[in-house]
Amino acid sequence: MKRVVITGMGAVTPLGNDLPTYWDGLISGKNGIDFLTRFDPGDYKAKLAAEVKGFDPLLYMDKAEIKKSDLFTQYAVAAASQAVEESGILGTVADERLAVYFGSGIGGIGTIETEIEKLRERGPRRVSPYCVPMMIINMAAGTVAIHFNAKGPCVPTVTACATGSNAIGEAYRLIRHGYADAAIAGGAEASVTSISIAAFISCMALSSSEDPNGASLPFDRRRNGFVMGEGAGALILEEYEHARERGAKIYAEVSGYGSTCDAFHITAPHPQAEGAARAISQAVEEACALAGSRERALDGGIYINAHGTGTILNDKAETLAIKRALGERAKTAMISSTKSMTGHMLGAAGAAEAIAAVKALTEGIIPPTINLLEPDPECDLDYVPLTARKAQTSLALSVSLGFGGHNACLAFSKVKEA
Fold it and tell me: Catalytic site residues?
């Protein structure tokens, strides 16, 4: 089996449109949630969102290409461009050995809204000839591949809120088994639209709070739903020996991956968190095997970037999953939900949160769960409330749980020489 490491990362988020700004926002406890500006939310029960601000696609794409791409694809290209540039991967790997695993939970929902409005108001001939390539979910992956001439496997994962994590995990397995030397992996979402917000309100998933500091409240007893976010995250995964030989900067090693399904309900988590616990256990056991022993992998401390949506059922189920997977070690693990700051970025969440987990591991700083003022008694672990914490860990986990019962967990470790 090949070893897989991370050599580049890029982010477009409600906290900032590049990696340094995003990370600085996380560790400073910046809240990226505010009142909706994309449309008038007057008749909506949910009036807040975590919007990407000040994004300029011209930094990454030309005008003609922008006109033919949905916002989620633009976010994907931006994050991928940042990661590719930082890694220096281009020109060091054959085009046929460079893969793209990039997904989205919803895809071009903004394009769909716009073109349906044209259809109803102006007739079928006014629908854009680019409507199909703008709305289909695979186009983020396809466009990223075109940008970087990546001719290896190009696969768009679509597993709702677990999308970004599954993309990274499947790319990790691809390289681990020798089918590629490197991959651009991540997720993108641009779902702050009128139909998306209305639909999530209807299924009782969104917070109705009008207080930006009282809306996204993971693990807090006051929580009543998540806040819609958007953006993209991208990571360059690379075979370890390849990265070492070319002198690449290595952030961390991808040391484990778990992927399961609850097979229980289309939206609700399993009440005993069986599937989520198995996903975490799979990732942890793989990391322990790589380290040579459970003690070596875990005794240096554990950080978990939780899915932590701020919905009633999710946070209780995730707490139970962590306890089932880690046993006594759950009591000493440091856990935080960065969704308290970014909102829920849906298909981009897993990638953005994987980046946060890697940075926590390498920088020795744990991002906080902001606004956690009234802990839920049923969520009784260490959620790093309010402010960031300096702490060295030997393992970082990133957990993602999606509608449809999708569970994914990524494990990251500090790189040890072979």
Answer: 161, 307, 344
CATH 3.40.47.10 assigned to domain 4-413? The reply is: yes
Residues 6+ apart with CB under 8 A from 305: 335, 336, 337, 338, 353, 354, 356, 357, 360, 367, 396, 397, 398, 399
Length of the chain: 418
313 class by beta-carbon count within 10 Å (0-12 exposed, 13-18 middle, 19+ buried): middle
- Domain boundaries in the chain? 4-413
Can you point out the beta strands (E) in 262-358? 302-305, 334-336
Cα–Cα distance, 46 to 41 (Å, whole number) = 7
Contacts of 121 by beta carbon, 8 Å cutoff, 6+ apart: none
3-state helix, strand, coil in the chain (%, to 5): 40, 20, 40
Under DSSP, the state recorded for 308 is -
Walk along the chain (418 residues) and give the pLDDT tens digit of each residue: 899 999 999 999 999 999 999 999 999 999 999 999 999 999 999 999 999 999 999 999 999 999 999 999 999 999 999 999 999 999 999 999 999 999 999 999 999 999 999 999 999 999 999 999 999 999 999 999 999 999 999 999 999 999 999 999 999 999 999 999 999 999 999 999 999 999 999 999 999 999 999 999 999 999 999 999 999 999 999 999 999 999 999 999 999 999 999 999 999 999 999 999 999 999 999 999 988 888 888 888 999 999 999 999 999 999 999 999 999 999 999 999 999 999 999 999 999 999 999 999 999 999 999 999 999 999 999 999 999 999 999 999 999 999 999 999 999 999 987 5
Buried b (16+ CB within 10 A) or exposed e, 353-383: bbbbbbbbbbeebbbbbbbbeeebeebebbb
Spell out the long-range contacts of 200-209 with Cβ–Cβ below 8 A and sequence spacing 24 or more. 200/46, 200/228, 201/44, 201/45, 201/46, 203/267, 205/267, 205/311, 206/45, 206/46, 207/46, 207/48, 207/310, 208/45, 208/46, 209/48
Q: What's the whole-model pTM score? A: 0.97
At 363, which amino acid appears? E
Q: Is 331 exposed, middle or buried (0-12, 13-18, 19+ CB in 10 A)?
A: exposed
The whole-angstrom separation of Cα 206 and Cα 209 is: 9
